[in-house]
Every structure is written in C-alpha cells, then in structure tokens.
Description:
By secondary structure, this protein is mainly beta. The chain has strands at 2-10, 21-26, 44-49, 55-61, 64-70, 79-83, 90-97, 100-107, 118-123, 130-134, 140-146, 150-156, 160-161, 166-169, 175-178, 180-181, 183-191, 201-206, 212-214, 223-229, 232-239, 244-252, 257-258, 263-267, 269-274, 281-288, 291-299, 302-303, 306-308, 314-320, 323-329, 337-341.
Amino acid sequence: ATRVVGLLVRADDGAPIRDREVALFEEEEDPPPARHQARRSDRRVRTAVTDASGRFEWTDVLPGLYRVGPTPAPIAPTVPLAIPAAPPPTLELRVELPVGTISGIVVTPDDAVAGGSGVYVESVADRSLRHGTPAADGGTFRFEELWPGRYRVRAVAQEFAPSEPVEVETGAAPLRLVLRRGATLEGVVRDAETREPVPARVLLRTDDSGGMFGRFEPWPEGAYTLDGLPGGPAHLVAATEDGRYGETPVSILEGESRAGVDVLVAPGAWIEPRVPPRVERAHCRVDLDGTPVAFGDVLHGRADPIVVPASTALTVRLWIGRAEQVRAVPPLAPGERRPVRFDLPGDDG
C-alpha cells in the first residue's frame, strides 16, 4: 500500500481549487466502451476534499490501476494512476480542472439593482449540475469553477417573480437578469368530498415552461399564500402526506394579488423510484401528457415516494448525470403504490 498526495488546480491559470470533492476510481485493465463511462460511479473507492491549497490525499492505497478526478464522476476529467506491486511510500499527482465562469447583474423591473437576490444556474446537458449564489449588494454575481458548457440562468428575489431563464455558454459576456413583478395567490386546500381544509404542499406549475414555484413544506392548516409568482397560464398543484392530489388551473396577471383560489384534492397514487444504492444523486420527474406533475430527488440511493394523480397513464423520467431513463406507468388505482425501477447508466441488465 502507498500514500497518494494530489493537487487540484485550474487548467487555465494553475490556481489551486479548494473545498472540492475528489474521487479515486478503480480502473479496469480492459477499458469498457465509451457508453459505459458513467459506470465510474459504480467503481468509486475513496474520496477526499481539497484543502485551502488544493491538496488532497489518501493513505494505504493498494496496488492497482486507478483514475483520479473531481466529482461528479460521469463527466469529470480524470487522470490515470498506476500503483505497482512494490509501490514507493508516496505517490504525487496533479489534476488540472477545466473551468468556466458566468457573471452578470440582477435588476428589478424599475431597473434598480437587486441586492440580496439569488442567482441559480443549471447545466443544460446535465440536470444534476446546479449551483446557486447570492448577488452582492450592487446586484452583481459571478460563478467560478463551473464545468465548461451551456447553462440555464435565472434570478430570484422575495416579492418578485423570477427573471426569464437565459441560456448561456460559460465565458460569455456578463448577463443582465431582470426580475419580474410577482403575483400573489391565496386559498385553501380542501378535501374534494368533505370540503374540509387539509394540510398540503402547494406549488404553482407554469404551463409554458413547467417551472415549479412555492414551498415544498406542507401548509399545516391547508390555507396557503404563494407570492413572487410569474404571470401567465399555470396550474396550482396540491399534494398531501397521506396521498391525496389535486390541480386547479389559473391564469395569472403580472403583479396581481388574488384570494379565494382553492384546490380540491382526492385520493391519488404513489410512484416509488427504485435505484441501485450506488447512485449518489439523481433527479426524478413524473409527466402527464408531456407536462410535469411531480418531482423528486434521489440521494445516496434513496428516494421518497412521490404523490401523483390516479387513474391516468404517466411517464417517469430519471436523470443520473447526463443519462436519462424513461419508464411508462399505466393508470394507477387510488391509493396504489407502484415501484419504478431504474438502472445505472451503461448496465447491460
């Protein structure tokens, strides 16, 4: 066994990268086809986090063939590491990370700087790559050390609707993100049969983009208030912890405030995503006729059941890194729980 000491730096200027997870993967002697590359997440051996100088290390690494690189594994660049049968006490290596930046400024509809706002980026190629940062007091923001590529960027702030999403390549000119005047909706979630209020989670799903707005914690008394909503056609979506589900269509005017928008819920069904325990992170979405109706996340191989509408065919999509898997689900009976199984990308069965 040997001690491996590494240094993670930016590929452009050699500056150290701190607080980044780096993984050590077993390497097969006969490398698999390129389509199996994402299976590196199945062969992870050790991880470490870089210190302030970009350094990381592992002790007692056994002889063998490895690859070393920052996570996430399916897309991160890696370097080979061969440890001989009679290794030296210490092996050193340098890992250079290609990086990209996105920057800009956030302003209000009145063209005032929006200090205290937040900005979020999501990779167009890989939905699992999401980052957020607060804007400075002057409304400016900057993302450093992104994976190079194309990202979807939007700004959010209290009392405002999010800016229109913008797609941009890393390294592009600074962006100008304009917040929109937010609308407010109030109402009560009620049981469709008894009309009694019920505790429920309430979200707004926009019809144009399928974006979801609101909070993911249930409103304990069933009475909800959603603010900072974008204008346009949308649906209010409510789900209870005991499996009831309901939707109400709404047409929202920019900046309006409206009360009395109730949502009726009836017995729904459950989708239970099943993934191999080796999957560290994945994103799940349930669609009805191509429209998103529910979302869920997988963390360390575990996913909570997702409440969905009953008696209608659904499509369940799961993203593990860049790889998307799709499963068709026939109509479910009210109260039914349906396991939906997914595999690691590249598995042959």
